[in-house]
């Protein structure tokens, strides 16, 4: 909590990416971009994630693994309408193109060749 407030007030970042629900609200109050990270492991995680997003109303959502993002968009996105970032388990450019075609706004990857 204090770390997010410090970073915002010292203008050391533009936003945060976090799984922690309470930090989304703090970041938004401090004027930062707030991206909610969700791990979609099963249908229960999808349902919980939907509730979290409705409550927190982040600026965007990052779905992990990235290959689950199209499923999320198909089943949840229409009600939330926040940008979707796909992260994790993305290994080539063809996967990225497919994700963009399915409605993903951006990709998060550590594979430098895909940057």
TrEMBL record:
Recorded protein name is Glycerol-3-phosphate responsive antiterminator GlpP
Q: Which GO terms describe its biological process?
A: glycerol metabolic process; regulation of DNA-templated transcription
* Pfam families assigned: G3P_antiterm
């Amino acid at each position: 909590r204090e770390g997010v407030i410090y970073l915002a007030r010292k203008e050391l970042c533009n936003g945060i990416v976090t799984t922690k629900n309470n930090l989304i609200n703090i970041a938004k109050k401090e004027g930062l971009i707030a991206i909610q990270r969700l791990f979609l492991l099963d249908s229960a995680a999808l349902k919980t994630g939907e509730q979290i997003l409705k409550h927190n109303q982040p600026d965007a959502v990052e779905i992990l693994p990235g290959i689950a993002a199209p499923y999320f968009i198909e089943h949840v996105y229409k009600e939330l309408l926040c940008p979707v970032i796909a992260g994790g388990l993305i290994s080539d450019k063809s996967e990225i193109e497919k994700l963009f075609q399915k409605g993903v706004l951006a990709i998060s990857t550590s594979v430098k060749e895909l940057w």
